[in-house]
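Design request, tokens follow.
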């Protein structure tokens, strides 16, 4: 019995000191414990539902998204497009089958390409043209609702749209900017889209008017599926004037309001030609994106602003930081376990914003002898890893149904949709050196565990 105990201890210590190949970690060995410090990567890489995006508008009954174009977006580290449907032909009629099929085809091609969209609908793309009446908007949303239900998994976010020129809730010819009509359109949008989809309004004041409140929501509300927790913000004249072309009325107060709400709901949009102020510097843009927790930004407009950032060498930094950028900081694991295992990992978010859509996280056990894989789902909610505050992921995991063996530990953060869960393009990559496995979509924790 004494020999068995000594032999087992030798095996345990020897295992904990084994090389993990291209492990990115600094390890501190104690008997039975492995303490790991991870190295942060400076690489530019893509992750779902965040980053620079392209904007693609299409006329009524127009041409579907080009599959080759979508496939090539991976080379730009782009995982998002803004798809704007111009419903010019349907201001007084129901949507045609041709129009509905166009939208269905687009969603199919987005899914095939591993891309998601930010969605918007409008009835014109100039200030002089008309929009549709409220009853027409409601009819169109009724028609679209079944399509949204089937394709919610490839919709990252929705810009409210429908009202006014470009769907920006301004320049309406049907009186749709009254509070009553804003509420009616928002109510219909919330009903038309599945509850996990977040909808973005053009200004913070619109949200305050619709929901009749002024103090930013807290975590209890923000992480719920209540209507107010589903509404965020988009800004189509970011950094363009002292109040971003009317985006704000009380600039300081409303920016602080967005800053607090953006812990739970997304902010994104595009720049436009500056008026009364110079082109935004890297320092100004960084400060604003940090404050307002920007998740995505249009690559196609406004060119001189984007070029200025490229010339000043901060564009790549924005590629890294737009949205979330999660990284392991440290971990502490036992080297041996039997019926359960304690995971202790500290994770940082070095991006501008949190993850907004629910994900599933699995602790992955991969046999060092057979390659067999076992997954245990964690209760961890990745949305709660917010910028600038370290998050301690601490859970006890049952090892039931995992046979005795030596295992490599990994983490998988995948899409909540069962259809996309095993698609690596939709899994979250951690920003550490030599952690990501592109072939599996797993993030290596740099630890070997003996289960006996």
């Amino acid at each position: 019995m004494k020999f068995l105990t000594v032999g087992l201890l030798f095996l345990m210590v020897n295992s904990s000191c084994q090389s993990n190949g291209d492990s990115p970690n600094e390890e501190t060995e104690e008997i039975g414990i492995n303490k790991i410090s991870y190295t942060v990567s400076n690489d530019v890489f893509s992750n779902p539902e965040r980053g620079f995006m392209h904007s693609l508008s299409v006329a009524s009954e127009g041409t579907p998204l080009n599959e080759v174009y979508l496939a090539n977006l991976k080379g730009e580290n782009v995982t998002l497009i803004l798809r704007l449907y111009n419903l010019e032909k349907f201001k007084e009629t129901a949507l045609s089958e041709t129009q509905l099929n166009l939208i269905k085809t687009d969603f199919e091609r987005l899914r095939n390409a591993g891309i998601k969209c930010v969605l918007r609908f409008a009835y014109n793309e100039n200030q002089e043209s008309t929009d549709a009446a409220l009853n027409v908007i409601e009819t169109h949303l009724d028609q679209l609702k079944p399509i949204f239900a089937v394709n919610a998994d490839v919709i990252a976010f929705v810009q409210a749209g429908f009202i006014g020129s470009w769907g920006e809730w301004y320049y309406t010819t049907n009186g749709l900017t009254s509070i009553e009509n804003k509420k009616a359109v928002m109510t219909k949008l919330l009903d038309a889209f599945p509850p996990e989809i977040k909808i973005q309004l053009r200004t913070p004041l619109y949200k305050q008017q619709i929901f009749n409140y002024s103090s930013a929501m807290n975590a209890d509300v923000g992480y719920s599926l209540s209507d107010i927790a589903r509404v965020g913000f988009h800004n189509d004249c970011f950094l363009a004037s002292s109040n971003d072309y009317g985006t704000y009325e009380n600039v300081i107060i409303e920016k602080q309001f967005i800053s607090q709400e953006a812990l739970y709901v997304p902010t994104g949009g595009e720049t436009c030609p500056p008026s009364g102020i110079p082109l935004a510097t890297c320092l100004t843009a960084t400060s604003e994106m940090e404050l307002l927790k920007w998740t995505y930004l249009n690559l196609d407009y406004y060119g001189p602003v984007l070029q200025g950032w490229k010339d000043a060498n901060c564009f790549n930094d924005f590629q890294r930081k737009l949205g979330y950028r999660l990284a392991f900081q440290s971990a502490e694991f036992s080297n041996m376990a039997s019926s359960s295992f304690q995971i202790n990992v500290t994770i940082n978010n070095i991006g501008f914003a949190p993850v907004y859509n629910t994900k599933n996280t699995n602790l992955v056990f991969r046999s060092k002898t057979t390659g067999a894989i076992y997954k245990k789902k964690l209760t961890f909610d990745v949305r709660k890893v917010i910028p600038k505050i370290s998050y301690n992921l601490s859970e006890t995991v049952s090892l039931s149904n995992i046979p005795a063996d030596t295992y490599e530990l990994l983490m998988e953060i995948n899409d909540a949709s069962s259809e996309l869960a095993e698609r690596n393009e939709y899994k979250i990559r951690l920003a550490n050196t030599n952690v990501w496995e592109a072939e599996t979509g797993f993030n290596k924790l740099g630890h070997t565990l003996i289960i006996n």
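Comment from the thread starter after seeing the answer: thanks! The CA atoms of residues 80 and 124 lie 23 Å apart.
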